[in-house]
Specification:
Blueprint lengths: L7 E5 L12 H13 L4 E4 L11 H15 L5 E4 L5 H10 L7 E5 L8 H14 L4 E5 L1 H4 L5 H10 L3 E6 L4 H10 L5 E4 L5 H7 L3 E4 L6 H12 L3 H10 L1 H8 L5 H9 L16 H13 L6
Parallel strand pairs: 1-2, 1-8, 2-3, 3-4, 4-5, 5-6, 6-7
Length: about 300
């Protein structure tokens, strides 16, 4: 199976909501065009940042349809297809419309806390079921279980369609181990905006970004500069956004980036329970930092 090139900045697209908590499809269209016009290399649909667990199946289908239609093959689309029941994930793969989708992103099973062998068997089953390339997603801060470098490399070496990993463990030694021992065509992608710059220096191919929703032009430029070895220029942009990286997650994701987008006039500052907007102190701090960065705010 042919792989997929995920070098550069992918954006983990948010789901905008109206004040009544319905999906704001008009704002979604605007967000997609904003990303397309400002350097996003690919779009990740229905990931963690999209508040996917709180979306209905009908909403997921409509959001996917809009993204595929709006992107129009201009960049690749990666679709989140994961869960903690292997059979259900396989059923999703077999039954959802994958037309216009270039790869699937599948997270380490959460809550169950499987062993490394259980994680391996889970992704082995998914790889065998998927007609598309599979991007592994390791985010132990959310799942409760870390996928080790040994398990990642085992999967990457044994299955041709497991072509990349979004690594959000924050464990530099683990990510470095994967990069050092992986095959040449297996791609390691940062899952954390704040450490993307040093991970690219280690050999990562880019990032699946949250802050890219708000600053696709600036952050994609930082990624490209780093990938081309211009670390000095990339470091300047990284440092410029360092304070915002912290504010993204102080009250949880995507509350931080939705506050930024609201301050910038893109969306209503609305999330679905159990998620809630940032505290007012965080919101005002975001406004203050954006003003300091000369970003236009409403």
């Amino acid at each position: 199976m042919a792989g997929i090139d995920l070098q550069g900045m992918g954006v983990a697209l948010i789901t905008p909501f109206k004040e009544d908590e319905s999906v704001d499809y008009e704002a979604l269209n605007r967000m997609i065009e904003h990303l397309m016009d400002n350097g996003a290399d690919y779009i990740v649909a229905l990931g963690t940042t999209a508040e996917t667990p709180s979306l209905s199946d009908d909403e997921k289908r409509e959001i996917t349809r809009i993204i595929v239609e709006k992107v129009g093959r201009r960049v690749p689309i990666v679709l989140g297809v994961g869960g903690n029941c292997t059979r259900n994930v396989v059923s999703q793969i077999e039954n959802i419309d994958l037309k216009g989708i270039d790869a699937i992103l599948s997270v380490v099973p959460y809550y169950n806390k499987p062993s490394q062998e259980g994680i391996y068997q889970h992704f082995k089953t998914i790889a065998k079921a998927s007609p598309l390339p599979v991007v592994l997603y390791n985010v132990p801060g959310r799942t409760g279980t870390n996928m080790s470098a040994t398990t990642t490399l085992r999967l990457a070496n044994e299955f041709d369609n497991i072509t990349a990993i979004k690594e959000a463990s924050g464990i530099f030694s683990q990510i470095d181990d994967i990069i050092k021992h992986k095959q040449a065509d297996f791609q390691v992608i940062s899952g954390d905006d704040g450490i993307t710059f040093p991970l690219i220096a280690l050999g990562a191919v880019g990032v699946i970004s949250v802050i890219g929703n708000a600053f696709p032009k600036e952050f994609s430029r930082m990624v490209r500069l780093a990938l081309h070895g211009d670390y000095s220029s990339a470091r300047v942009i990284h440092s410029r956004f360092a304070e915002l990286f912290e504010l993204l997650f102080v009250d949880g994701n995507p509350a931080g980036v939705k506050s930024m987008l609201n301050v910038m006039g893109f969306i209503d500052n609305k999330l679905r329970l159990p998620l809630v907007p940032t505290r007012i102190t965080t919101f005002e701090k975001i406004r203050e930092v954006l003003h300091k960065l000369n970003i236009k705010v409403k």
